[in-house]
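Re-running the complex after MR caught last week's input typo. The corrected sequence lines follow. Everything else is unchanged.
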Amino acid sequence: MQQITGITHADMADIALGGAFLGTGGGGDPYIGRLMAQQAIDRHGPVEVVDVAALDDDALLIPVAMMGAPTVMLEKLPQGDEAISALRSLEAVLGQKADAIFCIEAGGLNSTIPIAVAATARLPLVDGDGMGRAFPELQMVSMTMFGIQACPMAMADEKGNTLVLNAVDNLSTEKFARVVTVEMGGAALIALFPMTGAQAKEAILRGSLSLITNIGRIVRAEQEANRHPADRLSNELNGMRLFEGRVTDVERRTEGGFARGQARIEGLDRFHGRTLILRFQNEFLLAVEGENQYRAMTPDLICLLDLETGEPITTEQMSYGFSVIVFGLPCDPKWRSDSGLSLVGPSYFGYDARYQPIEILNQRS
Amino acid sequence: MQQITGITHADMADIALGGAFLGTGGGGDPYIGRLMAQQAIDRHGPVEVVDVAALDDDALLIPVAMMGAPTVMLEKLPQGDEAISALRSLEAVLGQKADAIFCIEAGGLNSTIPIAVAATARLPLVDGDGMGRAFPELQMVSMTMFGIQACPMAMADEKGNTLVLNAVDNLSTEKFARVVTVEMGGAALIALFPMTGAQAKEAILRGSLSLITNIGRIVRAEQEANRHPADRLSNELNGMRLFEGRVTDVERRTEGGFARGQARIEGLDRFHGRTLILRFQNEFLLAVEGENQYRAMTPDLICLLDLETGEPITTEQMSYGFSVIVFGLPCDPKWRSDSGLSLVGPSYFGYDARYQPIEILNQRS
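Corrected-run output:
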């Protein structure tokens, strides 16, 4: 996989595409973040991307992100200033300027917003993230496994409200930030998990921005060659086509700041006569065939792709009649540890299921 | 009315009694705050009480308070450290130490908690407050009328969670702080409305601590002389006995961080055959006789006293069978301005009624 060293205006199309793919249905539409990043790059120049190994041990990394339900983010386009406002609030509390910007989430809007912030703040962006995909809650990052505190955490909205939180642990941080996000109208810009270069070298998932870019390039190249991207993605990413069919029902509700629900897919062609249920909380979390045959479980990645074009489909875009491929990818091995599964396994989300790796679940199909 | 210059352990009984009276049914049980203040005074010495006129114009006043539903406060006894934690968080943000502590609310728990904080922080307490009584929301203070911002505002809970809020206006501050309070388990310690001596001289209601102390002294002296305190309170405070009867029904629910509801009182003796409804949101806000004859309306004070002892009764203590006097007092004249009524008049609380002063409503009774 090719490692990237910078991000230009032109790169953003591939990054948004790759970000939508790793968004696993959630994380917000990267298109908004793409526009924000492109505007910021046009004004301030390209963004330097650095490997975490190149950072000083005492460098200060600050991750920035948007928090909230993707359905709300679509209606509430960020102005661009809020993320900088959150960054500056956190720097003020720390009494120190950031040396680099970081993505906590490699998927969706949060793969692109940090690029806009890095461009505007004229800071390098670290090639990595805390999830290797998108997840719905902010404690669900590799940093939590390594004992790094989400707080102090800064939040900002488009009205000019800001807030600095010092919660006692990362789950409490999520709970406080979530109710504030709802009060901020459903979406907020956040800066959190400040960490040193030394901490980041141990705790982050590396190479995520390069991965996103490569996925975007593959999808686009295959689309241009009139081939479905799923085959090459399977080969190059150890992925698998889990199911193909038509969306026949979507239940979706916004609840406690999240978009929760499930979608029903009736099989087409070689899947004719079979049914798959996708359950989601912002992101796709479970794929269940028939009564109770699990095909993929969080933290493994479940991506929904258009059956014709291979374009990633988010939970909020998905609706009746879409023809889709359900595509699965193994998660980062860090997530399969006990501490990883306690953060992002099926039981955390309230599903009565014991995690099994996607490779095991699909050995015979 | 006698002006006080200090608060000793022995004074706290009168202050808690007077605070319960001005709590107008809400503000939390001052007994908890009395114990906290007595412990702090025992450890650190008596509290100096100063007139606002004696402060330097550039002195920094920081009000501290407890926020939340009184019913929750009863179950969640503060440790004592949380209020200091909120104070220190706010000082850290301001980069300046407080020169004096201030009460935002003259009634209930919030008339006594600042005494504990002043003792512990070894700071003087200003003789005044922002309400002249208790009110349920934090923007409902005279400081709001004078353009003083509630933010930066610090919040702390007993688990060690803290937060600093910078909302764009005082109503937004209330809304954010309220959802955080609910997430903190229903009650939080707060420091907010930092202001200079010059601002305080213009904006605060003066003499509130002296008033509380004098009310407490009157009630206790009359109780000891086996006289009902209502008569002397009427004479000395321009108050009026609005109704006497027995509580026959109480509806109470905790909703959005508030204790809301209403109580029905059936008349006794000279009120026999008549019915009074008291509506409350933490505090008593409306007294309505029969179908729609208003007897008192927020911001005028509605206090519920035990028919025998004259002891103030809070909305959470009140229950079926209590024999009570409903006692009314005119509010501070500042509240009767248009800006005052827009903050705390009946329509703000969702009651379809135009404010009329208690003296007008009861001219003939």
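None of the earlier attempt is carried over here. The CA atoms of residues 219 and 225 of chain B lie 10 Å apart. The radius of gyration of chain B is 19 Å.
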